[in-house]
Design a protein that fits this description.
- The structure holds two protein chains of two kinds.
- By secondary structure, chain A is an all-alpha fold.
- Chain A has a single domain (2-288), classed as Orthogonal Bundle (ABC transporter involved in vitamin B12 uptake, BtuC), CATH 1.10.3470.
- Helices cover 80% and strands 0% of the residues of chain A.
- Chain A has 13 helices and no strands.
- Chain A has helices spanning 3-9, 17-42, 46-65, 70-88, 94-120, 128-134, 142-171, 173-178, 183-205, 210-224, 228-252, 258-285, 295-309.
- Chain B has a six-stranded mixed sheet, with helices on both faces.
- In chain B, α4 (149-161) packs parallel to α5 (179-196).
- In chain B, β6, α5 (179-196) and β7 (199-203) form a beta-alpha-beta unit.
- Chain B is α/β, with parallel strands linked by helices.
- The two termini of chain B are 33 Å apart.
- Chain B is globular, with a radius of gyration of 19 Å.
- The chains are: A mainly alpha, B alpha/beta.
- Chains A and B meet through α7, α8 and α11 of A and β5 and α2 of B.
- Bound molecules: adenosine-5'-diphosphate and magnesium ion (MG).
- Adenosine-5'-diphosphate (ADP) binds at residues 16-17, 21, 39, 41-47, 265-266 of chain B.
Amino acid sequence: MTGIAALGTGGWILSEPFMQNAFMAGTAVALLAGLVGHFVVLRGQVFAGDALSHVAYTGALAALAAGLDLRLGLFTATIGIGFALGLFGGRGASDDVVIGTTFAWILGLGVFFLSIYTTRSSTSDSTANVKVLFGSILGISSAAAQSEAWTAAGLILVLLAIARPLLFASLDAAGAAARGIPVRFLGPFFLALLGATAATASQLVGALLVFGLLAAPPAAARKLTDRPWTGFWLSGALAVAAVWAGLALAYWVPTLPSSFTITSAASLEYATAATASWILARNARIPASPDLSNPEATQGAGETAGSRHQ
Amino acid sequence: MTNEPAVRFRGAAAAVGGRTVWAGVDFTVDAGQFVAVLGPNGAGKSTLLKAILGLLPVSSGTITVFDRKPGQDRSRIGYLPQRHAFGSSVRIRGTDIVRLGLDGERWGTPLPGWLRGSKGREATARVRETIRLVGAEGYANRPIGQCSGGEQQRLLIAQALVRRPELLVLDEPLDSLDVTNQRSVSALIQSVCRSKGVTVLMVAHDVNPILPYLDQVVYLGHGSAITGTPEQVITPEALTALYNTPVDVLRDRAGRLVVIGQPDAPPEHPHGPQVHA
Ligand SMILES: Nc1ncnc2c1ncn2[C@@H]1O[C@H](COP(=O)(O)OP(=O)(O)O)[C@@H](O)[C@H]1O
Ligand SMILES: [Mg+2]
């Protein structure tokens, strides 16, 4: 990979065009995934999010098998099925069975489309399956990067437009409905937005790994703050940080695939946040703990308490 | 305070899923009154509140809220839905829950506090003042999932009150509270009603905690309703006439009312005698 040359010359990471593309698309998509993910975790729809990333795989391969633009299948399938899931499925435990069964079948359908695609055309891109499953953030063209970034920016604007009523509806559907929020529409609409997010992100990190960006950063943010809007922005920032760290690592250690480094960074964030919140909670419970005589620990605990009551 | 009635039902009927829940319901709630909506499970108490909020159209008759159609003037109504408690995993502070009551339905995303200027400070002050009103200062900055049932209920009442509504509509706010909390939350609602002149319409499964405060009772049962003061309505004669089956009302030594023999709704499938009040 080109990264090796850069390693030798000690070149600035962003002097490489493929890295510029990766950072541009990756930043926008990460911000989108982190912000949407905040609501996914808040609404307890982590499983639905995972399922929709499987739909992304099948949609993409269906489009390829039909000889269409991959993105057409990707977005049609995820948005359509996301909306339908919101309309016909509730949010209870019994729906897990429906979601699980349906989506295992949809993944199987994807494998079926893959076999059509590979047997039908001998000229077909033999790495298509790998690309769809694991993404190709370091291999996208400048045009593709721009279209990714614009799509992500548009979806972020849509989310920002509905975020406050969505928070109300997520916490208290009956109260929100009484205040005139179209709760019955907002649920399906959000799942369609989640589908579109999965479709956008899957082009970078792959259908299998989208989920790392959608769940780990918001879960980490939730460990660090109990303010909904601080958590919202923190989740977006953590997702962006994970993508930047992952890209940098993949650039300097070219044997590591970028999808691996990005999801690893996101998981590391979660592990760190969980550990930090556990330690803070323990210190808060034992105020006379000798840990607190350590000025650094005292300062850290004081900051968190202050930010909570600010 | 104006002289228009807060809520008026005229021959109102409501249907849920094609089945008429109640019909021919007539009553008027004057501004500033404390009114209880009583009746057995499934009698249509929550349905009645939803009709007042404009979430469910009447199938015949009319309902007016401050002389307008239900749902037309949402800013004058505070609502506390019937609910299960927030689970311990809900990591949202009580303050944020109360804040949603102020502007939670506005499209968009709130700006960070330091960008909001004087309007933001005003909103924050209003939230803090409402939290003080319900006596929730001690736990408003804790995640609501870690608050007790009574604490959660106070915060939710604050959410319903934060826009200074003229009508407070509460669906079983005493549900799942222990006796001490039932008493203190009832007293809180009563004091809001009296000191702020807020009209209160409250669904209760057990009338006893609020009995001393009530101006009026709407008793639902057998697909209809009777209305009047508690002394007029919670009597063997009135309830026997409502249900068309013998109903007894006993008073224990502490003055608590116990209604015996009222059938559960729907009336087509009676479950035998039940003890309710
Ligand atoms: N979503 C619904 N679909 C069908 N029937 C319903 C629904 N909600 C309530 N009902 C029926 O309407 C009647 C009144 O319900 P409700 O107003 O919730 O009663 P209450 O609050 O007095 O317990 C009940 O018989 C109930 O079975
Ligand atoms: Mg009810």
